[in-house]
């Protein structure tokens, strides 16, 4: 008999002495061995903690979500759920959540609110929108929505209301990269990471900025398939740490590196001449163009040895077509971002990897169809968007946030006085926060629909509480999962909605009804889903069973026998449309400005535990990342007399912030880095308010000359030790 | 052969995303600021160029050791080794929250739960396993670096991995080698694998005391139990079967 048994026996004595069998029953139940099967219900949904929409199963007990688990049948996310996905509960049950409609009482941003009933709130929203339309034409109202399954209803509302002025989060993220690849291949590709033999990772950090399935496939392919991973990054990220090779490239010189790769591949004739002849346009022009961009030239620019550049070019070519320059996502970095990313696309073109295993894939057939409608015509309306004509190749459906903001501030060419924002937080994601505040102050009326009092909501007039992704019914959505799948997901509520929250769809429908636009929202979400799935009628049932529907569509060779959607009907190494528009048809390298003495280039980036401003106030994730720090190289820190953990003051041309320094050799001496999402103005985000530093306050608002994508890597800052 | 539940971890696949830590916290209601599992890494230096690929992130948790020093440190028997499954179990109903077991674990896998005031650590998610699921950390892991199961069962994922890679497996040990049941595929890289188990002297004395003390304890316990059993359950059916092992 062990001590354990002795104490168990003693426990029995006590139980017997006090209460008899009832207590004894309690004791028996509490035993650690063989627990009963839990009484949870399992319900399918799709994650919304970032844009990936990973399949999940919510475990629900007595109407409360107790755990979110990955859906093992969900191939796009490879049956996983990351830390953020697991923290979905903390978002739903966040005590800081918005609970009922709030009307601003004090000055904008002062934080004085009055609770009002929904009917009053909706009446007011409709009335104010009608007033703006009356006074400033329909285009006098701006609509902004983030990436969400219901965001399309904001676009639909804006169109029937009559405004062209719709912006998304994308121009603060990736439109320059999309533009560059679209203008090279005719569409924006997906990377076949899993089957690649050689991946050059530049301007992306796939093991920390998780993208499904690429982040996961990258690990599988380098550990199990013998793929080589080479990373260029001014920071020694986790991706860099797990790569076969890492080079701390000088920020802003990636294009020189890419053009030198092209130089070697062309001059050493390492490409497939048949493929280049059949499938590409402009090899002659490119050959002439890259002559001056030798590995030696690039080495001087990038700080990477010329022999390494030449070797990487040869290795990439040897592994072609199953090799790639990874396209990356966040491409909002420089004023010539589109041209920088064009140089990435051109190297991929030379590798001949388009539409082939281990290379870049075209979008697959998902099977969903759009639900068309006829928007009304408004005679009094403006001719075009407020940001039209200011950059040559903007995406109409995404807009340019920074260009729009400048246009609003200058009433150029016309005034905008109303703003409706859903599930995105430009105050927390756009550079130069002061300008966004100014833009807010320009508005007659701002309506924000969100689940939390973000900084954008904090500056609004009317704040409407929306439902989280686990409380509402969403339309179907088609997802591309690279080689993993082309699939359809939907969301059904897994719990009853909390507080007075309402889904955006109902809000739009109710406002439309009050503005005589009800006919455009005259349907239920079930009817909408049926229209979306009219060509795949089995999909809805399959999603009920598995949480996901897969379309068995072709993966490779989609373009066999088809023409490319470019001017030359081929992969455009040399872009003819750019030439017609007076843009550089081949990327011309301009050396980036270097930081002045005692200045640093500030770069942005992600971590696997945060999604910018939407998670800095998440109680679970906060335990992993309680605040943000300024990464500073020991050499620079030593020069400035800054020790690890010291409070430092960071000053840029547009703002000033304070935070703790993290002295680390994981960043170049000329560069500093901090995470986004912290130091919110909103006091109703109690974990992120007054905590760390806001990067948006510091970043200057330059933008890509071709697409209007914000350029987040063009700000130089000074750093000084804060004397207490 | 009895079961031996264990984790076989491919540290080379871990990207330090903290998915496992977040999943564990939610699944087990781990209080704020406390953790049942972790991802460690040795200080690594940023060296440009061709990497020696030595950087490893090391996921870990309670290792359900062969020779668990925590068991010896527990005065009530709340912590015990279940020889049927190989798990080191905390019976919360017997834990008095004395905290002796916490320094007794050389891997720092135990903590005193701030809410329950009792010892707490990884238990391989028994409620989930009863529902046919993997432990939360294993289920959620993006790269499936964590593999869990019975390493004595060649048909289980962990068993297959264990047998196939037997020569390559590293059983990391703290300064006090407790024969942990956590195996790392290949070289998990340098790391802080823990220090020495600190077991209170009184507990060591008790552990090593003469067998007759144990005998007396056992006999008195049995006597008390026998009497109690007769008093409470004579003829009351079979619903107390679990307790016959006393």
UniProtKB/TrEMBL annotation, chain B:
InterPro entries in alphabetical order: 4Fe4S_Fe-S-bd, 4Fe4S_Fe_S_CS, ET_IronSulfur_Cluster-Binding
Domain spans labelled 4Fe-4S ferredoxin-type: 5-33, 53-84, 86-115
Pfam families on file: Fer4_11 (PF13247), Fer4_4 (PF12800)
UniProt keyword list: 4Fe-4S, Iron, Iron-sulfur, Metal-binding
Superkingdom of the source species: Bacteria
UniProt protein name: 4Fe-4S dicluster domain-containing protein
């Amino acid at each position: 008999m062990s001590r354990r048994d002795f104490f168990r026996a003693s426990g029995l004595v006590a139980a017997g002495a006090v209460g008899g069998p009832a207590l004894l029953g309690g004791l028996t139940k509490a035993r650690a061995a063989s627990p009963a099967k839990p009484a949870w219900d399992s319900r399918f949904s799709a994650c919304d903690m970032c844009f990936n929409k990973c399949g999940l199963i919510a475990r629900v007990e007595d109407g409360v979500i107790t755990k979110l688990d990955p859906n093992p049948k969900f191939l796009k996310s490879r049956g996983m759920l990351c830390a953020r996905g697991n923290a979905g509960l903390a978002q739903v049950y966040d005590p800081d959540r918005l609970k009922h409609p709030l009307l601003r009482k004090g000055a904008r941003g002062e934080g004085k609110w009055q609770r009002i009933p929904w009917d009053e709130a909706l009446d007011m929203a409709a009335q104010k929108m009608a007033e703006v339309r009356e006074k400033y034409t329909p285009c006098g109202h701006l609509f902004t929505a983030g990436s969400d399954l219901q965001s399309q209803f904001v676009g639909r509302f804006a169109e029937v209301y009559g405004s062209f002025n719709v912006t998304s989060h994308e121009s603060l993220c990736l439109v320059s990269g999309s533009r560059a690849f679209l203008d090279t291949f005719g569409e924006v590709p997906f990377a076949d990471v899993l089957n690649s033999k050689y991946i050059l990772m530049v301007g992306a950090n796939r093991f920390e900025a998780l993208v499904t399935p690429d982040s996961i496939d990258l690990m599988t392919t380098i550990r199990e398939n013998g793929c080589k991973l080479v990373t260029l990054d001014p920071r020694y990220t986790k991706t860099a740490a797990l790569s076969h090779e890492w080079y701390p490239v000088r920020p802003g010189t990636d294009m020189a590196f890419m053009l030198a790769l092209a130089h070697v591949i062309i001059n050493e004739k390492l490409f497939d001449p048949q493929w280049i002849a059949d499938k590409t346009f402009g090899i002659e022009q490119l050959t002439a163009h890259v002559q001056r961009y030798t590995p030696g030239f690039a080495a001087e620019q990038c700080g990477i040895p010329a022999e390494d550049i030449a070797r990487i070019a040869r290795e990439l070519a040897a592994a072609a077509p199953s090799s790639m320059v990874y396209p990356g996502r966040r491409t909002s970095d420089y004023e010539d971002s589109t041209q920088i990313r064009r140089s990435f696309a051109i190297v991929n073109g030379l590798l001949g990897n388009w539409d082939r295993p281990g290379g870049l894939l075209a979008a697959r057939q998902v099977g969903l169809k759009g639900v068309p409608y006829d928007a009304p015509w408004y005679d009094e309306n403006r001719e075009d968007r407020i940001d039209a004509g200011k950059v040559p190749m903007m995406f109409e459906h995404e807009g340019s946030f920074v260009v729009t903001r400048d246009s609003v501030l200058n009433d150029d060419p016309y005034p905008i006085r109303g703003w409706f924002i859903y599930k995105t937080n430009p105050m927390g994601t756009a550079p130069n926060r002061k300008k966004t505040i100014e833009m807010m102050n320009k508005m007659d009326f701002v309506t924000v629909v969100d689940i939390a009092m973000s900084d954008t909501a904090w500056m609004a007039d009317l704040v409407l509480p929306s439902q989280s992704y686990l409380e509402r019914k969403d339309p179907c959505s088609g997802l591309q999962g690279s080689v993993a799948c082309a699939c359809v997901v939907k969301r059904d509520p897994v719990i009853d909605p909390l507080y007075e929250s309402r889904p955006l769809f109902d809000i739009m429908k109710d406002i439309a009804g009050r503005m005589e636009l009800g006919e455009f929202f005259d349907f239920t979400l079930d009817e909408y889903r049926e229209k979306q799935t009219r060509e795949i009628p089995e999909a809805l049932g399959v999603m009920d069973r598995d949480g996901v529907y897969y379309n068995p569509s072709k993966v490779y060779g989609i373009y066999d026998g088809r023409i490319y959607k470019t001017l030359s009907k081929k992969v455009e190494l040399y872009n003819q449309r750019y030439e017609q528009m007076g843009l550089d048809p081949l990327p011309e390298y301009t050396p980036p400005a270097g930081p002045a003495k005692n200045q640093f280039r500030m770069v942005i980036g992600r971590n696997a535990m945060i999604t910018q401003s939407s998670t800095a106030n998440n109680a679970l994730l906060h335990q992993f990342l309680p605040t943000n720090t300024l990464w500073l190289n020991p050499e620079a820190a030593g020069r400035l007399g800054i020790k690890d953990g010291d409070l430092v003051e960071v000053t840029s041309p547009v703002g000033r912030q304070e935070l703790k320094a993290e002295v680390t050799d994981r960043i170049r001496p000329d560069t500093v880095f901090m995470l986004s999402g912290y130091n919110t103005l909103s006091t109703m985000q109690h974990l992120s308010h007054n905590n760390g530093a806001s990067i948006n306050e510091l970043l200057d608002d330059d933008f890509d000359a071709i697409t209007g994508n914000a350029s987040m890597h063009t700000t130089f800052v000074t750093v000084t030790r804060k004397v207490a | 052969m009895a079961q031996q539940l264990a984790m076989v971890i491919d540290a080379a696949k871990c990207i330090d995303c903290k998915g496992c830590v977040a999943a564990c916290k939610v699944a087990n209601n781990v209080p704020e600021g406390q953790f049942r599992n972790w991802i460690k890494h040795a200080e690594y230096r940023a060296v440009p160029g061709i990497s020696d690929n030595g950087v490893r992130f090391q996921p870990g948790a309670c290792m359900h050791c062969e020779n668990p020093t925590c068991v010896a440190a527990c005065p009530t028997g709340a912590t015990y080794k279940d020889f049927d499954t190989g798990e080191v179990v905390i019976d919360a109903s017997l834990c008095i929250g004395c905290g002796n077991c916490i320094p007794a674990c050389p891997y720092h896998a135990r903590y005193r739960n701030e809410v329950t005031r009792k010892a707490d650590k990884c238990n391989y998610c028994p409620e989930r396993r009863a529902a046919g699921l993997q432990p939360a950390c294993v289920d959620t892991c993006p790269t499936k670096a964590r593999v869990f199961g019975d390493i004595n069962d060649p048909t289980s994922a962990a068993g297959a991995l264990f047998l196939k890679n037997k020569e390559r497996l590293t059983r990391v040990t703290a300064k006090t080698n407790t024969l942990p049941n956590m195996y790392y595929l290949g070289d998990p890289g340098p790391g802080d694998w823990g220090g020495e188990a600190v077991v209170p002297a009184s507990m060591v004395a008790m552990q090593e005391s003469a067998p007759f003390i144990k005998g007396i304890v056992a006999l008195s316990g049995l006597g008390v139990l026998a009497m109690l059993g007769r008093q409470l359950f004579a003829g009351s059916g079979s619903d107390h079967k679990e307790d016959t092992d006393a």
